[in-house]
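[job 0412] stage=complex_fold ligand=zinc ion status=START
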Amino acid sequence: MSNHALLLLAVACTLALGPAAAAQARDRSRAALGPHLRVRPVDAADVRWTDGFWAEKFALCRDVMLPGIREALGDPGNAAILDNFRVAAKLKGGKHQGTDWSDGDCYKWLEAVAHVYQATRDEKLARLMDEWIAVIAKAQDADGYLSTNIQLTHRPRLANPHHHELYNMGHLLTAACVHHRATGKDSFLSVARKLGDFLYRTFQPRPPELAHFGWNPSNIMGLVDLYRATGDRKYLELAGIFVSMRGSAPGGSDLTQDHVPLRQETMAVGHCVCATYLYSGAADVYAETGEEALRAALERIWGDMMARRMYLTGAIGSFRQGKSPRGDSVHEAFGGDYELPPRTAYNETCSNLGNAMWSRRMFAITGEARYADLVERVLHNSALSAVSVDGTGYFYCNPLAWGGEKQGPSMHHTARRWSIHRCFCCPPQVARTIARLRGWAYGVSADGLWVHLYGGGTVATTLPDGPAVGLTQQTDYPWDGRVRLTVDKAPAAPLAIRLRIPAWADGATIRVNGRRSRATAGPGTYAVLTRTWAAGDAVELDLPMPARLVEAHPDAADLRGKVAVMRGPVVYCLESPDLPEGTAFGDVAIPASIELVPHFQKDLLGGVTVLRGKAARRSPDSPGLPAPSKAGWEGRLYRDLRPSRRGAPPGESIDVTLVPYFAWANRGVSQMAVWLPRR
Ligand SMILES: [Zn+2]
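[job 0412] stage=complex_fold status=DONE, emitting structure tokens
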């Protein structure tokens, strides 16, 4: 056979094998997935959003966000630049441009493209990925090293954690594994293996000079991904080494969770992206090793964050610069106990999403609804606030109040979302999350299917021991708490369908084929519906969604005397464009007796449910509230204002409209507040 004929045959085989190879790659990854997971995530390939809230966000990501980010990655004024790979591959001349972490942000975009390709099979996306993967492969050094910021500037390798080499490399590993699962191709995965081998040779001996080498450690998650994709245990071993390195040698700092060994840590501390990436990676290691000390530490740290250090929106990062509770200099970090200033909150998009990534892993390990509730809290609030409703602009910081100024307390506190920025880590972080979110919606365990997220769509998957199961979900969630699930496929044996009942959902009810189910549907649990299901069986879940007033722990000084409003999982805010004429922003107070009525407005802010009601006019002689009592908080940071504590009707009233927090700042520079004075 001629060379040409051989080449044609090879091309034909590749084309024919594409979907089959992708399925094999998925099966391998699925089989390798964490023996110590209580609930396994359903592969994103098995899930579709068809209509409603998340389907619309996915379409926005596919049609607007990804092309927009691609454009930014080609703009010389942007902090992340794809062309660095072309220069490192010697395909063109030039210097390194952008930040040290530019490569990692480019990989996050590629990862998002792979997630979208998996859902759409759009060949244009396949070609786009092939094109850049070929360039990235050419940019890789012979020994596997790849970080263009170092290669193109001739600075020494691994000399300074802030050069972000491990961040860049970790995102390459994850993007390559996602690409492999989506396409079945090995092109990117072989780059990842060479890089993983380089890291193993470098770090496995644990050289003392690299004891404190960790910054935004996406490499831990990436190495576990690589282990799952290849089955090669050395990558898992190395991920474990990176976890154990933290706090293992004197001289470490809380900034990078390096003051105390992770297994002994009691606090969520330090730089919030570093923290959530480390905790997520450690949870991945636990899923494979089942080491109890690691799990116990992660549960402690998560509990500490929830009780003392997290914003109502699921955001984290109380300040730009300061001291940790142990006195280390830290920045972009968790605050001290109850330190939650709304206006100066740093709340970087990447750390908020890191919190969701970590909590999602904690759920998979434990099967406890509180973790899945937090994932949803982040998604509907501090994740979506990062992107404009038209998908073209992004926030880096996500404060909970804004005074109408053009610029806030740091260069990343902006009044408007931007498309090009001096630090571009956040946009592809949002994009890859929305692109892959369908893979977060369901889980499986030996006895059944778990429904974590509500949104119109379908799932068709298999349980760990083989039987096929399929569901169709119809809902207008998060604007309406009614969810209808129709069974498409089920085994001829009893199967549990578990529905998440969010902690806010008091009085949830479930009907099966029109009859009220006796299954308990307590807030903050999964309701378990076990029966032999048949195709066409219908489950109707009703999660009551009254608007709720929420108060914060009395020790949160910045939130004292204030209330926030939530409905379902959505946090609301007051924004200046909604104030009646002649009313100043500071005039509005919320009486505890306020009635807030939901209205869906299709043409507002991309289609949102607003809340309307009569607020009180605040005056200088408004009576102060009684001193708050610390009784009855039981380790909680936020709680609903109990009806018995609802106060007297107000004097003069102001008509107010509250909008979802995530949709603020889409109508020009504005004033905004989540926490409003209480009357
Ligand atoms: Zn970021």
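The chain has 15 helices and 25 strands.
[job 0412] exit 0
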